[in-house]
């Protein structure tokens, strides 16, 4: 081969081998230390928590299947009534999906504004970028359930507080994701539009949105899935929908476990359905239409 | 050694490889030529079992490769190394680690996660790199190397597998003429010194003619030529490429010498 001759004169193979081995040894040492620290921290943390826990992990472990077994056996005994129960809770399911849909739509608009106002190069008021970024940080830092509890206290129970709570969290979370996409957008069209005397909203609407739309829609669909789960959970604190019914069914204990099972089935099927639907659309958006 | 019998691959309506028959009885350096889309890559990918054939069979030393699954299939892949047009190295890992990836089939996931390759393997990897003339690049990241160097790292990874067959899918299509020559010469040397079978997809005729013992021509998924480089006349080449009378070998060339040759021809024509 052409360049063996001059390559081996610079450094002998055994030199390279020993240098590389030193490097590997060092890497292994670091890797081993990291692993050791990780294991020690995991084990130590586990023991600390286990001591503070009322029941204890090992003592409780064998009972882990008891509750699902109760639910399943009771649901199986009353399986004849299952279709009627599914029908009974279907309106609650629609309520849950509605909460998720409305809050996603509101959150998308909020996130859109927050992202455009908080992205360098696009912001209307560049000096206020940190302000809008902190606003979206705060909006996604506060858990939905906390906002919902406060709002339920103020507005009373029902779907509206849940919707507002999820919308606030969605706006914050999407604001972050959207602005990461917007940062990579090409600024030339924006400059072109500015040269024609377009306003800020026109520049954003016509110059930026067409570039980022596929990513934005894909993130929004993902968020919709997450919000269905979130709105089901918020029902537990009295915000209506499927979660509210589930809490009642579970809290009443034996005797209504068949209802709990029916709600689980509804929730599971819904999440699988929307997961499949949105992943199909997201694939198409990111990879382009399959021919 | 290698019997490929009526091997067919269809993607929906389109037939990428149409009942290919290839018989190889001793380690040979084989060049497969043809236009882009003629099915060359698909054929090699099926031999490596990166993709599954629709019909037909591949038999290597009496073992039916087409039916292998799971661990047996991965074991076959470790015995049948592959080199790609875009090198397909892990860009952020160092050169020696990339070469050591050739031993992955013998190592557990745990061992590879913590970089626990035996010292003998590491030394062997650096010796292979030295054989290919890039030993001093050993600790660098693969992405820091030039295209020609990266392709030699890919060849080193293939050699690390100690394979019976080396499949090279357009190994020089992304390289400049000088590096192309170094890479092709490396493959030829490996074939001659180690006695390994080399099957290379090439899209230039003169490379196939210069480095291979046997040339297979493909057109629209079918094998239309199978013979020695000497049998490969300009007429046959026109057939393979589906080109008209204006086709000349120099037009597809990536060799530096061709420039001189065609310049000389032009000069003679003028004279």
From TrEMBL, chain A:
<comment type="similarity">
    <text>Belongs to the binding-protein-dependent transport system permease family.</text>
</comment>
<dbReference type="InterPro" id="IPR035906">
    <property type="entry name" value="MetI-like_sf"/>
</dbReference>
<keyword id="KW-0812">Transmembrane</keyword>
<keyword id="KW-0813">Transport</keyword>
<feature type="transmembrane region" description="Helical">
    <location>
        <begin position="29"/>
        <end position="49"/>
    </location>
</feature>
<keyword id="KW-0472">Membrane</keyword>
<dbReference type="Pfam" id="PF00528">
    <property type="entry name" value="BPD_transp_1"/>
</dbReference>
<feature type="transmembrane region" description="Helical">
    <location>
        <begin position="256"/>
        <end position="274"/>
    </location>
</feature>
<keyword id="KW-1133">Transmembrane helix</keyword>
<feature type="domain" description="ABC transmembrane type-1">
    <location>
        <begin position="93"/>
        <end position="278"/>
    </location>
</feature>
<protein>
    <submittedName>
        <fullName>Phosphonate transport system permease protein</fullName>
    </submittedName>
</protein>
<dbReference type="InterPro" id="IPR000515">
    <property type="entry name" value="MetI-like"/>
</dbReference>
<keyword id="KW-1003">Cell membrane</keyword>
<feature type="transmembrane region" description="Helical">
    <location>
        <begin position="97"/>
        <end position="117"/>
    </location>
</feature>
<dbReference type="InterPro" id="IPR005769">
    <property type="entry name" value="PhnE/PtxC"/>
</dbReference>
<dbReference type="GO" id="GO:0015416">
    <property type="term" value="F:ABC-type phosphonate transporter activity"/>
</dbReference>
<dbReference type="GO" id="GO:0005886">
    <property type="term" value="C:plasma membrane"/>
</dbReference>
Automatic annotation (TrEMBL), chain B:
<protein>
    <submittedName>
        <fullName>Phosphonate transport system ATP-binding protein</fullName>
    </submittedName>
</protein>
<dbReference type="InterPro" id="IPR050086">
    <property type="entry name" value="MetN_ABC_transporter-like"/>
</dbReference>
<keyword id="KW-0472">Membrane</keyword>
<dbReference type="InterPro" id="IPR017871">
    <property type="entry name" value="ABC_transporter-like_CS"/>
</dbReference>
<keyword id="KW-0813">Transport</keyword>
<keyword id="KW-0067">ATP-binding</keyword>
<keyword id="KW-1278">Translocase</keyword>
<dbReference type="InterPro" id="IPR003593">
    <property type="entry name" value="AAA+_ATPase"/>
</dbReference>
<dbReference type="InterPro" id="IPR003439">
    <property type="entry name" value="ABC_transporter-like_ATP-bd"/>
</dbReference>
<dbReference type="GO" id="GO:0016887">
    <property type="term" value="F:ATP hydrolysis activity"/>
</dbReference>
<dbReference type="Pfam" id="PF00005">
    <property type="entry name" value="ABC_tran"/>
</dbReference>
<dbReference type="InterPro" id="IPR027417">
    <property type="entry name" value="P-loop_NTPase"/>
</dbReference>
<feature type="domain" description="ABC transporter">
    <location>
        <begin position="2"/>
        <end position="245"/>
    </location>
</feature>
<dbReference type="GO" id="GO:0015416">
    <property type="term" value="F:ABC-type phosphonate transporter activity"/>
</dbReference>
<dbReference type="GO" id="GO:0005524">
    <property type="term" value="F:ATP binding"/>
</dbReference>
<dbReference type="InterPro" id="IPR012693">
    <property type="entry name" value="ABC_transpr_PhnC"/>
</dbReference>
<dbReference type="GO" id="GO:0016020">
    <property type="term" value="C:membrane"/>
</dbReference>
<keyword id="KW-1003">Cell membrane</keyword>
<keyword id="KW-0547">Nucleotide-binding</keyword>
